[in-house]
Automatic annotation (TrEMBL):
Residues 9-19 have a biased composition (Low complexity). Gene3D superfamilies: DnaJ domain. This is Heat shock protein DnaJ domain protein. Keywords: Coiled coil, Stress response. Residues 31-65, 246-273 form a coiled coil. The lineage of its organism: Bacteria, Bacillati, Cyanobacteriota, Cyanophyceae, Oscillatoriophycideae. The keyword Coiled coil applies. Residues 1-22, 144-168 are annotated as: Disordered. It comes from Rippkaea orientalis (strain PCC 8801 / RF-1).
Length: 357
């Protein structure tokens, strides 16, 4: 007998119920991943928000403390500055000086300003030159190039872009939609009970603050806190409903990612400002056991002593206690400071030269 042939079985097509189950399983997995990402982003935003707030509070605290302690010295420096300007004015108006002496004293006066020892103060001739420049730049004629471009600045361009385009972006639209949803439910005017009105009023304060700050994370937290987010029963929902829920969560996560990146950038910018650098220096000094404010006050006191010495020196010349030759040499304390600066510069130059070898 001839051997019987084995009949090759054809694969049976999966039933519609099996395909649906596989599709729903994929959506379940996608939903799980999106929810995990959502929770992670909310935590990171909260952490970064606290970090930024702490840093800004530290800037304010350090600045306030420094201002409180340095203010008396600063006020004294301002008074000395005014006094020195007045003394030079008296020298120019009351002392009988030759043309050469007048020029030499004027140079001393200007050098003190250029060196930052006293505030800059321009003479009448310089003021007239400035007025001519002002007239040129304030020319309103159409041919004036500077007038055409006078109002341009990156800030203006940015604000113009914001006003025209901000509400057109998908992110801002979704933030606004979330805000309107919360506002429609918690507006105090929509309830009559006084206790409920007060509660809604407090909620709306948070909603408004979050909306003004573009804080989508807080808006979503408020939604979830008050059970306003649409809950999906995945076991009894259609594939279409589950897909819509996943798409909504994906959009939420994209907004949260944008907010997270903005917070990181804002913190980075804050750290790179002069105030941020001040806080970093403040921390570094504290780690080394140094009182940073005392260091700054010590420098200011040294500056105060130098300016007082200059004031006394100028006054002595006005009162004819020293000759013009002595005056042109400068006060001893200032010569000492200049010599020390030159010595430091020489040492730095020498170190650099040795380092190159």
């Amino acid at each position: 007998m001839a051997p019987s042939k084995k009949i090759k079985q054809q694969p049976q097509p999966s039933s519609p119920s099996q395909s649906t189950a596989l599709g729903l399983s994929a959506f379940h997995e996608r939903r799980r991943v999106l929810e995990e990402e959502h929770e992670w982003l909310l935590k990171q935003i909260q952490r970064k928000r606290k970090e930024l707030k702490k840093f800004l509070d530290e800037i304010r605290s350090v600045a306030t403390e420094m201002f409180a302690q340095a203010s008396p010295i600063y006020q004294k420096l301002m008074e000395l500055d005014t006094e020195i300007h007045d003394l030079f004015e008296q020298i120019f108006t009351t002392r009988k000086l030759g043309k050469k002496s007048q020029q030499d004293i004027t140079k001393v006066y200007r050098n003190l300003q250029f060196m930052g020892m006293i505030s800059p103060k321009f003479d009448q001739d310089e003021d007239e030159d400035d007025e001519e420049l002002d007239e040129m730049f304030n020319d309103t004629s159409e041919d004036n190039f500077f007038n055409k471009n006078a109002h341009y600045s990156p800030e203006n361009e940015s604000s113009q872009f914001t006003s025209e385009s901000a509400y057109k972006s998908p992110e801002s639209k979704q933030i606004r939609q979330t805000f309107l949803k919360l506002a429609s439910l918690f507006h105090p005017d929509k309830v009559t009970d006084e206790e409920t009105q007060m509660r809604h009023n407090e909620i709306m304060k948070e909603v408004n603050r979050a909306y003004q700050e573009g804080d989508i994370a807080r808006l979503l937290e408020l939604e979830r806190q008050h059970h306003l987010q649409e809950e999906i029963d995945f076991d009894n929902s259609s594939k279409s409903d589950i897909e819509k829920a996943c798409n909504r969560r994906e959009k939420d996560n994209q907004l949260l990612k944008t907010q997270y990146e903005n917070l990181k950038r804002e913190l980075r910018l804050a750290r790179n400002t002069p105030e941020g650098e001040m806080v970093k220096d403040y921390r570094a000094c504290q780690k080394e056991g140094i009182d940073p404010i005392e260091e700054i006050l010590s420098e200011m006191k040294g500056q105060l002593e130098l300016i007082e010495n200059i004031r006394d020196f100028v006054r002595d010349f006005l009162d004819k206690k020293i000759t013009i030759q002595q005056f042109l040499k400068g006060p001893s304390l200032m010569r000492k400071a200049t010599a020390e600066e030159e010595e430091e510069m020489f040492e730095m130059l020498l170190e650099n030269l040795l380092g190159l070898k």
